[in-house]
Amino acid sequence: MSDFPVRRPRRLRRTATLRDLVREHDVSPGDLIQPLFVVHGQRVEREIPSLPGVFHLSVDDALDREADRLVELGIPAVILFGLPATKDETGSENFAPDGIVPRALRRLRDRAPGLLRITDVCCCEYTSHGHCGILRGEAVDNDRTLEVLGRVGVTHAGAGADVVAPSGMMDGMVGAIRGALDAAGHSEVAILSYAVKYASAFYGPFREAAESAPAFGDRLGYQMNPPNVREALREASLDEAEGADMLMVKPALAYLDVIRAVRERSMLPLFTYNVSGEYAMVKAAAARGWLDERRVVLESLVAMRRAGADGIITYHAKDAARWLRDAHPPI
Ligand code: PBG
C-alpha cells in the first residue's frame, strides 16, 4: 500500500462527530481539584491581586458559598491552604486543633459532606521565616521537620481531612506522616505526595496569596532542580515505598515530560498541579485580549491528561467545569 494519496489522516477530521469519535483523551469536571485559601476573620471574600478570580475566604458563609458552587459544578475535591493568625519559628498554628485549616475542614464537612477534603501539609505558610521546615541556623532541619509534619497530618485527619498532601519536599515525609497517622488511628486517611516538586519561579503568585515567600534564601536546597528527570523517578519511587497512595508532579505545563515519565513507572494514581504562575499568565494575556482564555485553558488541561495525569489541581477548575458543561465537544 502506498502512502499519499491513499492514506489521508484528514478524513477523520472532516466532521465534528468523526473528530469526537476518534478523540484519544478528554478532561471532565470530575478530574479537577480546586485550591482554596482560608483565612481568619468574618465575611472575607478578598480577591488575590495576582490570581484574579481566586479569593481569600473566611470560614463562614464565604466558604459555604464556595463549597456550594463547587458541588453544583461537579468538582469533586478541594485542597486547602491556610493563612494563620500569627506566624512563629515552628509554625504552631499548623498543628493547632482549632487552627484555620481544621476549622475549614469541619465547616466543609457539615456544608458539603460529599466534597473530598485534601489538605496541603507544609510549614511555609505558618513559619515566620517562610521556609518549608524547622530551621537550624539558616538550614532546614529535615528530621525535626518530620516530627512537625506528622503532627500536622494527625491534626488535619482529626478535623476531617480525607487526604493529606505533604508539599515540603522533606526526605522521609511520607513515611513519617503515614506512621503518625496510623499511630493515631487514622489508617484510612490517604497520602497524596507532592513527590516531584521543582524549585519553580511559577509559584510566585501563590507565595503572595499564601504570604509564604521565604524571608531569606530560596528553596533550592529542598525542591528539585528543573533540569532533572531521573531524579523525579527516584523521588516518586521512594515516596511510593514510604506508603504514598497517590503522587503529584508540580508544576504542570513546563513538566509534561516528567508527568509522562512518572506515569510510565508507577501504578499509583498521578496528579499534577497547574500552579499559580501558569494561571496568572493565562489570566493576564486573556485580560488584554491576547489569548482566547477558554480554549487555552481546555487545551492545557487536556494536555496534562494526555501526558498521564489522572487529576489536576487548578485555579481554573470552576471556569473549566462551566465550559465543559456548556459546550460539547469542548475542544
Ligand atoms: C507550599 C506550597 C507551594 C505551592 C503549593 N504548596 C509554594 C511553594 O512551594 O513555594 C505552590 C502552588 C502554586 O504556585 O499554585 N509549600
Précis, in short:
With 331 residues, the protein is α/β, with parallel strands linked by helices. It is built from 11 helices and 12 strands.
Find the structural class using helix and strand composition.
alpha/beta
Helical content (DSSP H or I, runs of 4+):
25-40%
Q: What's the alpha carbon Rg, rounded to whole Å?
A: 20 Å
Averaging pLDDT over every residue, what do you get?
97
* Largest sheet, strands/sense/barrel: 8 strands, parallel, barrel
CATH topology: TIM Barrel
Spatial strand sequence of the major β-sheet: 1-4-5-8-9-10-11-12
Tally the structural domains. Answer: 1
Secondary-structure element string = HEEEHEHEEEHEHEHHEHEHHEH
Q: How many beta-strand runs?
A: 12
Principal-axis shape: globular
Q: What do we call the CATH homologous superfamily?
A: Aldolase class I
The N- and C-terminal alpha carbons lie at a distance of 33 Å
With helices defined by DSSP (H or I, 4 residues minimum), what is the helix count?
A: 11
The top-level CATH class is Alpha Beta
* CATH-scheme architecture: Alpha-Beta Barrel
Q: Which regions have little confidence, pLDDT < 50, spanning 5+ residues?
A: none
